[in-house]
């Protein structure tokens, strides 16, 4: 970023056009994430199959990472976000009316694909629009926006499920939120361009020839291809990227294993969503603290407590399965997981922004997101697979081990690739 761009930083504009649509989308996503495995179970799926269906939102996000940069580059950031919200609504309608697990899985996968486009567009804009000296706080605040959604969403889901008596009715929350996000993007001015609504694709005639879509400029070099970028940056992506993947795995595993554990200990749908929502409040409360930790003491000061705390929580969950007070342990461990996760708010986006080349950051960020999302997509599949052949307690123990491995990877390679003041 140039000094001119920094001088022109529009905090109010970024908050409205950047954070508000993200908050709406996150509230809807937060409402459905704890509901997906429960909805699958209510349609007759076993715990293992329910975990697999829940994983498809992350598998879809992983696959959506491949074309997302090209999509944003072709049609622009704002257009891509509006389109992603509309496609997500289609998938959510499928989830709402699904009479069986197969159709539910199709809808969940479609939501995941659209989420990838939405997320890359937001990350791209924030990386270019925010001055470097407050980058960690800004990106952790963006992470906090998503955590706000994961905090509010489950409470809304619990209320809707309680009132309607139907688990799948919770998907309507995300439909409304996607519609609201699309309308917000159409109504508010983009601080980078000063225009409202849909933009014409690059190369088309436009009444404002001086306006440049920040997101489009940022991701235009993505056309070289995701896998070519992975080859170019294979060393850092194999090393630090594997650590990012394990962070993503630990977080995604938490989102799947907690609803499954709630089912296994006999909690009803509304109560499970309520407990996960309370845990989400702890997660949300720490988002800015995480940014302060990273800016003041370095990235490891946030990443290591996050991974180690999640590992301990997974181990405790596996151990508590045979106890008479396992419901109480479940509530306590859910809050402990959120505490650990909150300490690491924004760590993946911040590390990606730190490592991305300044002249062409978008291709690297697309590849970086792919490595993190690979871990996120793999973790629920690992949990459902181990649950099918062994038990959910064994799956929780395996996740705890993976967290320790991730902490070791980051401890080894962060000092190698980041300057001392950022470590």
- Binned strand content: under 5%
How far the N terminus sits from the C terminus, by CA atoms, comes to: 21 Å
Query: Based on CA inertia axes, which overall geometry fits?
Result: globular
**Helical run tally:** 18
The SSE string, one letter per element, is HHHHHHHHHHHHHHHHHH
Structural class: mainly alpha
What percent of the residues sit in helical stretches (DSSP H or I)?
A: over 70%
Q: How many beta-strand runs?
A: 0
Major sheet size, sense and barrel closure = none
Computed CA radius of gyration, to the nearest angstrom? 20 Å
Q: pLDDT average, as an integer?
A: 81
Contiguous uncertain segments of 5+ residues:
1-8, 201-219
């Amino acid at each position: 970023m140039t000094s001119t761009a920094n001088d022109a930083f529009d905090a109010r504009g970024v908050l409205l056009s950047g954070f508000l649509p993200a908050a709406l989308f996150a509230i809807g996503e937060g409402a459905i994430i704890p509901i997906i495995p429960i909805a699958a179970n209510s349609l007759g799926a076993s715990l293992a199959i329910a975990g697999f269906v829940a994983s498809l939102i992350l598998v879809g996000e992983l696959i959506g990472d491949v074309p997302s940069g090209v999509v944003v580059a072709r049609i622009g950031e704002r257009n891509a976000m509006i389109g992603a919200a509309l496609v997500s609504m289609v998938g959510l309608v499928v989830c709402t009316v699904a009479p069986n697990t197969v159709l539910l899985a199709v809808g969940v996968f479609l939501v995941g694909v659209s989420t990838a486009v939405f997320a890359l567009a937001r990350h791209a804009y924030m990386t270019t629009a925010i001055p470097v000296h407050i980058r960690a706080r800004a990106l952790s605040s963006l992470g906090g926006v998503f955590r706000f959604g994961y905090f509010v969403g489950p409470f809304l889901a619990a209320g809707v499920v309680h009132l309607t008596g139907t688990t799948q009715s919770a998907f309507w929350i995300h439909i409304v939120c996607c519609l609201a996000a699309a309308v917000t993007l159409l109504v508010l001015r983009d601080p980078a361009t000063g225009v409202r609504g849909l933009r014409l694709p690059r190369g088309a005639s436009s009444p404002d020839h001086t306006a440049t879509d920040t997101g489009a400029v940022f991701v235009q070099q993505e056309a070289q291809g995701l896998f070519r970028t992975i080859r170019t940056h294979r060393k850092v992506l194999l090393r630090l990227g594997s650590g990012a993947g394990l962070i993503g795995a630990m977080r995604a595993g938490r989102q799947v294993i907690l609803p499954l554990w709630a089912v296994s200990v006999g909690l009803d749908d509304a109560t499970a969503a309520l407990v996960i929502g309370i845990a989400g409040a702890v997660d949300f409360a720490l988002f800015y603290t995480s940014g302060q930790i990273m800016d003041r003491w370095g990235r490891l000061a946030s990443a290591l407590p996050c991974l180690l705390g999640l590992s301990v929580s997974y181990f405790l969950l596996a151990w508590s399965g045979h106890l008479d007070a396992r419901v109480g342990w479940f509530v306590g461990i859910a809050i402990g997981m959120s505490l650990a996760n909150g300490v690491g708010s924004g760590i993946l986006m911040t590390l990606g922004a730190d490592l991305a080349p300044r002249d062409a950051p978008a291709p690297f960020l697309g590849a970086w997101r792919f490595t993190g999302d690979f871990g996120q997509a793999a973790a629920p599949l690992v949990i459902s697979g181990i649950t099918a052949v062994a038990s959910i307690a064994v799956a929780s123990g395996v996740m705890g081990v993976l967290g320790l491995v991730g902490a070791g990877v980051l401890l080894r390679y962060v000092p190698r690739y980041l300057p001392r003041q950022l470590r």
